[in-house]
Amino acid sequence: MTITNAPPSRSKRPLRTGRLGRLAGMAQAGVGLVRGSLSSDPIAPLERAAETLSELRGLATKAGQMAGIWSAMLPPAERARAEPVLARLRAATATSDPVAVRALLEQELGAPVGALFASFDEAPFASASLGQVHRARLFDADGGLEVAVKIQHPGIDVALRADLDNAARFGGIATLLAIPSAGAMVAEVRALMEEELDYEAEARWLQRFAAIVLGDPVLSVPRLVPSRSSRRVLTTELVHGLTVAEASRLPHAAAQARAVRRFVRDTWLEHGLLFADPHAGNWIFHEDGRVTVLDFGCIARFGEEDRAGFRATLDALGRGDRATASGHVRALLGARDSSAAAPSIEMLLLALAPLASDVPVRAAQLAELARVGADAKKRMLGSRLALPTWLPMLLRALIGTMALLVELDGAD
Fold first, then answer.
1. Residue-wise over 392-405: b if at least 16 C-beta within 10 A, else e?
2. Which helix (H) or strand (E) holds 60?
3. Calpha distance 66→57 (Å, rounded)
4. Widest Cα–Cα separation across the chain
5. How far apart are the C-alpha atoms of 330 and 68, rounded to whole Å?
6. Domain boundaries along the sequence of the chain
7. What is the C-alpha to C-alpha distance for residues 153 and 164, in angstroms, rounded to an integer?
8. Pairing mode, if any, of strands 131-137 and 119-121?
9. Which of 113, 139, 192, 248 has its CA 20 to 30 A from that of 319?
10. Is the separation of the CB atoms in 221 and 213 below 8 Å?
11. Separation between Cα atoms, residue 23 and residue 170, nearest integer Å
């Protein structure tokens, strides 16, 4: 058994789990992100915000990952400067104490590390919002597979619930008063976020998606190792490949962009499973043109009636029939003929457009979506529109996919 010792944790202080302490940290980071978006030199404030977000982990890391959307709107030179900062948020979040991580791993799997793996690197090579990922290798008797072992940050369950409490109490009060369906929206988002704490549920989703893409010449998901997985530990084969920035410079980039669109669209509209965490760190691109999808912790479910409406919308957008597409979206939103719904309809049309065709997505489209989205939010608050509970997670998925395609398509 080989164990490679971990260096000291990158975190300068223990993981904050208290609700008020996490609220203060999130507020500090939020100011940094706002300053970055408004500043003539946006990178320095972003760097300071990234440090705070990576230290907090949990919902804070998700906020940092979504900052990649803002990055995709920048001019190419500034986007290149921002990328190393955003890469830290995707793959180098502050690590947890190695002793505590080992104790959690052994508690979850019921055996010493040396009995579980032929080799195990205690220094994580990547971080997820709720955990960190370690390289390991199974014994020859178990196949000798090189694996990625995702282990939850000790205490992250308490921290995440504190973040969700803060979001509901402070971010949602005005919204709850202004949007009749906001309470149900908050409850649905919370349920999906809390489901991410259950790696056994994620393992089931991984196997479901593996069955969907089985035999696909381009798309794949990592193989699950059930005997080394539990509620707080998830072990899969370790997949090597390229980042989206590296892939965008290679000849297969356009085909891989089509594969991303196809995966998100077909699993959602044909199987009712929306891959709701599509940020760049959850995709591995290969030099031979293949694409591997990672992280199935957040999957939103859609019924057939809504899926039929979205299929009709994408068909209309693909034909260039925007008026018909607008009518379908109006019906999906349940907006009747209210003029207050117009920005919300436009927002969804812009977000759906990249899935309707293989035309390269440009950064200007994201900027336009941000502008329309801000207007839609004002109208929602001012008119008490009752919107579907699926809207927040759908927008998260569509906007994240759009930002990924901006990078992969390489279109400015």
1. bbbbbbbbbbbbbb
2. helix 59-72
3. 14
4. 67
5. 29
6. 19-91
7. 17
8. antiparallel
9. 248
10. yes
11. 9
